[in-house]
Fold this protein.
Amino acid sequence: MSTEDRRLAVLRAIVEDYVHSREPVGSKALAERHALGVSPATIRNDMAALEDEGYIAQPHTSAGRVPTDKGYRMFVDRLSTVKPLSMAERRAIHLLLDDAVDLDDVVNRTVRLLAQLTRQVAVVQYPSLTRSTVRHVELVPLSAGRLLVVLITNTGRVEQRVVDVGEDPSEALLGEIRARLNAAACGRRLSQVSAALAGVPETLAPEDRPVARSVLEALEDSLKIDREERIVLAGTANLARAGIDFQGSISTVLEALEEQVVLLKLLSEMSIDAGIVGVRIGHETAHAGLSETAVVASGYGSPGEVVARLGVLGPTRMDYPTSIAAVRAVARYVSRILAS
Amino acid sequence: MSTEDRRLAVLRAIVEDYVHSREPVGSKALAERHALGVSPATIRNDMAALEDEGYIAQPHTSAGRVPTDKGYRMFVDRLSTVKPLSMAERRAIHLLLDDAVDLDDVVNRTVRLLAQLTRQVAVVQYPSLTRSTVRHVELVPLSAGRLLVVLITNTGRVEQRVVDVGEDPSEALLGEIRARLNAAACGRRLSQVSAALAGVPETLAPEDRPVARSVLEALEDSLKIDREERIVLAGTANLARAGIDFQGSISTVLEALEEQVVLLKLLSEMSIDAGIVGVRIGHETAHAGLSETAVVASGYGSPGEVVARLGVLGPTRMDYPTSIAAVRAVARYVSRILAS
DNA sequence: CCTGGCACTCCAGTGACGCGAGTGCCAGTT
DNA sequence: AACTGGCACTCGCGTCACTGGAGTGCCAGG
């Protein structure tokens, strides 16, 4: 084992011990608890080097060392091995997610499950509209010139709008419009629907076009609304449990969590294809309120086609191997459920 | 002023000072800050009496007094006067709620608004399904024997289910079923729909009944699912801000908040007609995790017809007059919006 | 390049102590 | 009977000095 290798082993030991004990770890304890094969004095030298390189830091002189964000980053990238889930945990995932009845249910169960598995705050983003495709468009006459326009996506999401067309269109006309809209839109990405539908009114008799245009407007509206920007949280109580891990108050973290925009931006910036787990640590989150937290997230959906993201958030001092394993397993399972 | 009246005035002064300062309040400070017209010694006697009656307590000997739950209860019931909202606050309510586009939007804006106005945790319950009426039922053929069953309520809520009927029913049959369902269900309370629809399949030709029965099953399912039991929270960060007010950790409170069932039970047990504001203080919440919190809530909807509830939750040491005023104003305004 | 030894630093915990806010009680006054 | 001023007492809290121990950096020797 080269000295460089040993230094990294020391770093790994520091991260593991610190995550476990919450207390700065010193050279002596390290030599005792880990079979590094060298004396505390040597470890001290290694630690001094690691500190120079910015992987660890001292809270104050004559205290043990604590990993820095950079140290955690190194740990995650090169030093940790994935910790497979226990049988019980796998069973819990199946048990809980298998009998979800609809999309809302899947999302809600997933977020609770993640929070419970990792004992962190869990985040699940609703499947994005813009990436999904149209499964069906339906028009429903309500009463007195009002129509209900329903848009159903392949992810099971349903958007609806009531539109006032001023007159009661005939059943035949509705059928006509419905057929043409479906012919033009079915199977297309939502982002392309707008263009695909633009020409539809012109294919109708001139007197029927106003109705078709109103319907189209409502559809556009359904597409535009950024419902995809919805996320669901669970396990915020876990923050308080780990509250002492935060230098400042946990209220800044809670505030950041309520600003869903922040989380969405963060998730969208992480390059996490379905099945790939990404990690942001401390300052990497680029948000003041989250400077002491880390995010572990993954995309879900089909490979190469991420419909949304999910993950967990906790103190930088968190158990990365376990969190990563849980996020990966849950993301995969949710992907499978949505695909069926 | 009788001595009894003065004692209550002392209690009021204690509550007000304590809410303001967070510190046990003593007889001397009380005599200085409030024009009670008597000496500290007299106030001390009054305080001793109030303590005997259980309205106030001492954290420890030789400390000032702190209101008990019973003391707050007396304050809320008999000693406080409603504090009208400022012009700016009223304007904020109008500004924020007036251009809400749909039910989701109203609920989300409301909960944020309440949290901001009161600086507490805000809770808004979604309008209950069971109290609303059916506006429309729609059947949409999807593909390969699958139907989408859509239920639209007068509160703007839409429930949908996909049902597998095994065959592709003719458009004529669908129209027939659709018409009969709507005739039987439109305008009825959701709670009565089940009974009203039970006979519908029997009015059809025998070979068509299986399809109708499947549809009915899906509808029943839409009714049963307790989506009405959804609540939305905001302002949890305010809890942390007031964190030191909690003897124990705030995590127990956060846990209670995540158990939405607890909140729903609490809200439903409070007798709060639309426009009436109810208060639960400390142990009155009958939940261990909330023993140090108080809930101020009101129903909303039309008078005598509460469709759901909203309110705020904070430490028992909270500014009741302000919270009550805010909850009342917001509940009224939301009621008006939903009525239109 | 590793190791044991050594001097140094500094936090955290402890106990002593005085201050001040607050109380309860009592005797005197209105 | 109710209020008041006075007084002795209690007790939490902040300060301070002290100490033990864990941890470090450095150095000389293997």
About this structure: The CA atoms of residues 138 and 150 of chain B lie 5 Å apart. Chain B touches chain A through 31 residues (CB under 8 Å). Residues 3-67 of chain B form a domain with the Arc Repressor Mutant, subunit A fold (CATH 1.10.10.10).
